[in-house]
């Protein structure tokens, strides 16, 4: 086993199992480009401040660029014995350009280096998440416009409540996602802060320029406290919280998709491309993608809790425990991006069984509120109107008919003032379109809602 880059004060080499336990290269190699960008910014700053010579800086930068080329050609072999992405790159550099490569780590520690990489990675992934949310929102708007006037049953307690527009129901998810997008955008101000230059914990004796590297890496500011800079993982927790809320939203949506495509509901038909079959039951077409998203929302909740527990007992400043931030964060990021993207395709390709949806609202008692509201227009106090309507619903159930099938003569025995304009009011379309309040379910209100929603999505 070759000597570790930090091996000066050691006389024995590391136990093999320990080396394997200690390494993180299997996980953190995805930080390759972020580490490279950090290296290049740092070396440029060192040269700019005359901490290293122009010639040395040039040699180092050329060496780093050559490593990027090797990496892209697939000829770079990361080694577990060099622990992590940071030491692997430094080792590769020294192999390529000789001992001058060792100057790269002047005025820096792996503690501010890994923190920098993680901030860069978090920023990049946050932007991808925001973009993916935006695409899903776009699909929801398209779907809502396509089926703008289709009526479906609205539920409370999973019991038919009142007829609503399918588009109104779908747009609910748009606004959930919009809050998610806002939360991720808000996080960026804490993500986009530079820890570089904080050293191991205390700063550095070299005359570095932290604004220079912050600017080069696109950060908005520098951490005011070097100890905080290397110890802070709050921004990762923030992002993981946001990921959890987003996954929870997708999980709720998944639950509806799963119900809606069942034989019992038949509201939608999922595309073959987004479903799976059964190894035994030839008739099956299962909504596995929605189930996986629902399931994975549990996994990312566990990831968040895992990192929170890792952090809660840590004294300042850097502790190796912090290496554990990666696995859970990377898994959560991968999961949420895939989930949003797969969801987008699943929604885009599904069919809405409009005829069936409309029929369901015509064959239930979800127009009972219309009847009560109608009695109110006859100057009956709402509480009494509710009681009378309840009795009428009971009468209809007992006689196995719907409210619209109750004869006028019977209505008149209960409320003499009633006349036959009651029947048009029992039509679900009438019920829906009377809800003209600003956030209500009428076609007009939902059209205005969609117009408003469109101002929140970035156009390609
Ligand atoms: N691989 C380490 C991590 O992910 C890098 C920092 C190591 N620093 C140290 N002092 N051992 O946290």
UniProtKB/TrEMBL annotation:
Keywords: Amino-acid biosynthesis, Arginine biosynthesis, Cytoplasm, Lyase. It comes from the Bacteria. Its EC number is 4.3.2.1. CDD domains: Argininosuccinate_lyase (cd01359). Its main location: cytoplasm. Pathway: Amino-acid biosynthesis; L-arginine biosynthesis; L-arginine from L-ornithine and carbamoyl phosphate: step 3/3. Pfam families: ASL_C2, Lyase_1. InterPro entries: Arg_succ_lyase_C (IPR029419), Argininosuccinate_lyase (IPR009049), Fumarase/histidase_N (IPR024083), Fumarate_lyase_CS (IPR020557), Fumarate_lyase_fam (IPR000362), Fumarate_lyase_N (IPR022761), L-Aspartase-like (IPR008948). Residues 8-302 form the Fumarate lyase N-terminal domain. Residues 365-433 form the Argininosuccinate lyase C-terminal domain. Belongs to the lyase 1 family. Argininosuccinate lyase subfamily. NCBIfam families: argH. HAMAP family: Arg_succ_lyase. This is Argininosuccinate lyase. It comes from Macrococcus armenti.
């Amino acid at each position: 086993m070759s000597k570790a880059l930090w091996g000066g004060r050691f006389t024995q080499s590391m136990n093999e199992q320990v080396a394997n336990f200690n390494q993180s290269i299997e996980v953190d190699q995805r930080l390759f480009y972020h580490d490279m960008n950090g290296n290049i910014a740092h070396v440029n700053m060192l040269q700019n401040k005359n901490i290293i010579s122009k010639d040395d800086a040039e040699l180092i930068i050329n060496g780093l660029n050559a490593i990027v080329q090797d990496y892209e050609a697939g000829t770079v072999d990361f080694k577990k014995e060099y622990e992590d992405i940071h030491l692997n790159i430094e080792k590769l550099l020294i192999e390529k350009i000789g001992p001058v490569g060792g100057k790269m780590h002047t005025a820096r520690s792996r503690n501010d280096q890994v923190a920098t990489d993680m901030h860069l990675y978090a920023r990049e992934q946050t932007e991808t998440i925001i973009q993916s949310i935006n695409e899903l929102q776009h699909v929801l708007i398209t779907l809502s416009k396509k089926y703008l006037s289709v009526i479906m049953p609205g539920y409370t307690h999973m019991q038919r409540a009142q007829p609503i527009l399918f588009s109104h129901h779908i747009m609910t998810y748009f606004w959930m996602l919009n809050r998610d997008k806002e939360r991720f955008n808000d996080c960026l101000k804490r993500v986009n802060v530079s820890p570089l230059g904080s050293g191991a914990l205390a700063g550095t004796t070299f005359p570095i320029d932290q604004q220079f590297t912050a600017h080069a890496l696109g950060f908005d500011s520098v951490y005011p406290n070097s100890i905080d800079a290397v110890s802070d993982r709050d921004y990762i927790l923030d992002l993981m919280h946001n990921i959890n809320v987003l996954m929870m939203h997708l999980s709720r949506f998944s639950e509806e998709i799963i119900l809606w495509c069942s034989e019992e509901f038949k509201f939608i038909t999922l595309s073959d491309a987004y479903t799976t079959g059964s190894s035994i039951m030839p008739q099956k077409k299962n909504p596995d993608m929605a189930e996986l998203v629902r399931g994975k929302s549990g996994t990312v909740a566990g990831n968040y809790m895992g990192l929170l527990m890792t952090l809660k007992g840590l004294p300042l400043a850097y502790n190796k425990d912090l290496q554990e931030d990666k696995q859970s964060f990377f898994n959560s990021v991968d999961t949420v991006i895939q989930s949003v993207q797969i969801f987008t395709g699943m929604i885009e390709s599904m069919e809405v069984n409009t005829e069936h949806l409309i029929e369901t609202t015509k064959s239930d008692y979800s127009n009972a509120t219309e009847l009560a509201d109608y009695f109110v227009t006859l100057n009956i106090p709402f509480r009494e109107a509710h009681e009378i309507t309840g009795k009428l619903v009971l009468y209809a159930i007992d006689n196995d008919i719907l409210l619209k099938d109750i004869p006028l003569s019977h209505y008149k025995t209960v409320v003499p003032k009633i006349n036959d304009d009651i029947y048009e009011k029992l039509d679900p379309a009438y019920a829906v379109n009377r809800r003209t309040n600003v956030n209500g379910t009428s076609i007009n209100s939902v059209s205005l809602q969609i117009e408003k929603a469109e101002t929140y999505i970035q156009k390609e």
